[in-house]
Amino acid sequence: MKTGKEYIDSLRDLKTIAYYMGERVDNMVENPAIRPHINAAAATYEMAHDPLHEDLLTATSHLTGERISRFTHIPQSTDDLVKKVKTLRAIGQNTGTCFQRCVGMDGLIAVNGVTYEIDQQKGTNYHQRFLEYLKMIQTEDLMVAGAMTDPKGDRSLSPSKQSDPDLYLHVVERRRDGIVVRGAKAHMTGGINSHEILVMPTTGMGPEEADYAVSFAIPADVPGMLFVFGRQTNDTRKEDCQIDQGNAQFGIVGGESLVIFNDVFVPWERVFMCGEYEFAGLLVERFATYHRQNYGGCKTGLADVLVGATLAAAQYQGVDRAAHIRDKIVEMVHLTETLYSGSIACSEEGHKLASGQYFPNPLLANTTKLNVTRFMYEISRLAQDITGGLIATLPSEKDLKHPEIGKYIEKYFKGIADVPTEDRIRIVRLIENMTGGTALAEAMHGAGSPQAQRIMVLRQANLEHKKRLAIKLAGIKEPKEST
Ligand code: SF4
């Protein structure tokens, strides 16, 4: 398995074409906007070598029997599902941000199961192809980015009805040796600093959308691929300061890109679905459930950091013993552990699929992610409430270090006597950045919008069963079914 340094060094060899703020990115590893996200992804490699974490971050490959990264492992038991969640909480606690590698992990897991089922029904050989690919990923310990969300254009129209057919990624040519695809994938977490891109369809498809029902994997630097790296809250702070970034080493959220596929060639051995539209929706649902399972893992790791930061901020300004502060901290912990309970529960209640892999309980996984869309906002609100208005009004690091006015910042932003002003400012900046715009939007829309989870909850809730329970207890005779 790669170390964090080996992962970072391996990125230097990639020829990924990327743009950020109107300029071509020549060296992503040294680019200040991208480097913190690379550091966060590197933690998924480095922590696998730490004796304290290796039991969580590594697993035994069911294909080769070798010790591999959990991020390339297919869950073989409910214990594996639970360890997946615990892994993410542990890395979240150590990075305080999104470490990106789970989208590809969940893509690999979902494609593993669905290719097996396609082959069973259609007599195709996608699964064997995929297993060869997976073996390569496990052995070389590569970072895979999952690419699902298409730009979608007019949401009221299906893929084949769009005025521009490229608004959903699709096959434009089938050749003897492979396919050619065109389109784009949006919001791609960690794509720019991944070795491989695993593409999946974004929604269920009908027969007229067979060209859009496509799944494949390609190296991130193949001809025709182009990344446009997105902006984030406070991103210009990465250019010229450290303290004001809050978490300069690992950044905030994952580092998302728009990825454009300009007639990209994919050899058949890397194609895992091509035209089997009946399975597009299944692949989306499987991927979404595996990724929603995660959110009570990684986000609770972040919430642990936020609770700790808030407590420190309260202490630095002398209010940590106030009853209302303790009460709000307890509320933050309560919300955090409620999220964690959901992820552990959906993992424990997982079941085996036809492929032999384990799948979390989809109702509980979707409920967990739906809770994240609210609870992370509430945890952030409480953090800001306790920290106070200086989240919004603090002068810059440059003022703090200014030869003439620095002494005033030192003097007038001082909290309790034995804590340096700079420490107080550092913790406030961490809270500011962890509870800011992009971080909250990610909690809302990462792994799909709340509405997507509501649809799944409705589908899984078995409301008729609940109604029958009530009717029976109320002594109401159920109407006989008409023949
Ligand atoms: Fe992983 Fe969480 Fe980031 Fe998704 S949001 S990629 S689960 S760290």
Tags for this model:
single chain; 483 residues; alpha+beta; four-stranded mixed β-sheet; 14 strands; binds iron/sulfur cluster
Number of helices: 17
* Ligand roster: iron/sulfur cluster
Strand content: 5-15%
Helix- and strand-based class?
alpha+beta
Structure description:
The chain is built from 17 helices and 14 strands. With 483 residues, it is of the alpha+beta class. The chain is globular and about 75 Å long. The termini are far apart. The model has no long low-confidence stretch (mean pLDDT 96). The site of iron/sulfur cluster (SF4) has 11 residues, from helix 5 and helix 8.
Write a compact overview of the structure shown.
With 483 residues, the protein is an alpha+beta fold.
Topology:
Elements: H1 4-12, E1 18-20, E2 23-24, H2 35-46, H3 54-57, E3 58-60, E4 67-69, H4 78-95, H5 101-122, H6 126-140, E5 144-147, E6 170-174, E7 178-189, E8 196-199, E9 214-219, E10 225-229, H7 237-240, E11 256-267, E12 271-274, H8 280-316, H9 323-348, E13 351-352, E14 358-359, H10 362-387, H11 390-393, H12 397-400, H13 406-412, H14 421-434, H15 437-445, H16 450-460, H17 463-473
Parallel strand pairs: 1-10, 5-8
Antiparallel strand pairs: 1-2, 3-4, 6-7, 7-11, 8-9, 9-12, 10-11, 13-14
Helix pairs in contact: 1-2, 4-8, 4-9, 5-6, 5-8, 8-9, 8-10, 8-14, 9-10, 10-14, 10-15, 10-16
The structure holds iron/sulfur cluster.
